[in-house]
Amino acid sequence: MQCEDLAQELPGFIDGSVRLGRHQRRHVDRCLRCQADVAHYRKIVRAMQVLRSEVIEPAPGLLADILLGLEGASVANRHAIRTLLSGRRVVYVGGLAAATAAGAVSAIVFTTRTRRAARLVS
Amino acid sequence: MPQTVANLIAAAQAGDRAAFDELVRLTYADTYTLAMRLTGNEEDARDVAQEAYLRAYRGLRRFRGDAQFSTWLYRITANCAATQLGRRARHRHDVLDDTVQLADPRTDHDPQLRADASDLRNRLADALDDLPPRLRSVVILRDVYDLSHEAIAAELGISESAAKVRLHRARHKLRTQLFPRRDEREIGTTRAG
Description:
The complex is a heterodimer.
Chain A lengths: L2 H4 L3 H4 L8 H9 L1 H20 L10 H60 L1
Helix pairs in contact in A: 3-4
Chain B lengths: L2 H11 L3 H23 L2 H18 L9 H24 L24 H14 L2 H12 L4 H8 L3 H19 L3 H11 L1
Helix pairs in contact in B: 1-2, 2-3, 2-4, 2-6, 3-4, 4-6, 4-7, 6-8, 7-8
């Protein structure tokens, strides 16, 4: 077992995402170089965790820009809903008109046929 | 989750814009910090932060509260940053190459001579900046923000196994730069020459 054989495994070994085989574990237990690598990886991960509490101060104006963008999206959203509703209204009114017209035509046809039939009988 | 944040989320989900604005005020510095770490420059970080809040606003009803709000926001930010980095790469034809030389040949930056924690933190920040974006994103999301492999894979549009491979490669490169073995230092010096 060579240190190079383990080079790709150690970065995952430190957080348990890679499991070492028995021979690999035995090598790490005896190899000062691999143990130093493991210690260094752990040190790096600990230092990374410290970064979590640090905040990079945003340049002035970012908050205002974000809120302005949200306002724009909000207005656009309201406009889209209004357009959709007015479009639906047109379709609804159009449908009603078509139904009324169809009803009127049917009534005229019915009346005409009824009169014609009555005339033929008499 | 603090009660105030939970209340604000509930109010915002019910359509209260002022409540969402307050959530933005509470979290925007953190979101910007993550965006800055992922993109590496201020202009992109601003764009990413703005886009992240727009997406969060549109998708707020889908937030079910089974994760922390901050984690949910980190995922959205990571996704926006991936999109931004992809767009930047296409426009500028950047080579997202991970074969950059990592070992620093300058003797005044010899890691062996620097031991204290604040110095390690500064060198770590530099080393992270030197990582290719696709490796940097994964190691920051995992080791700094503690996102799961599954979440990272989903937001970056890669498989879970690819996320793990990138994480291990990123850690390996950081270790090589921060704590190079003697043979690695020699390779770094040779490459630099």
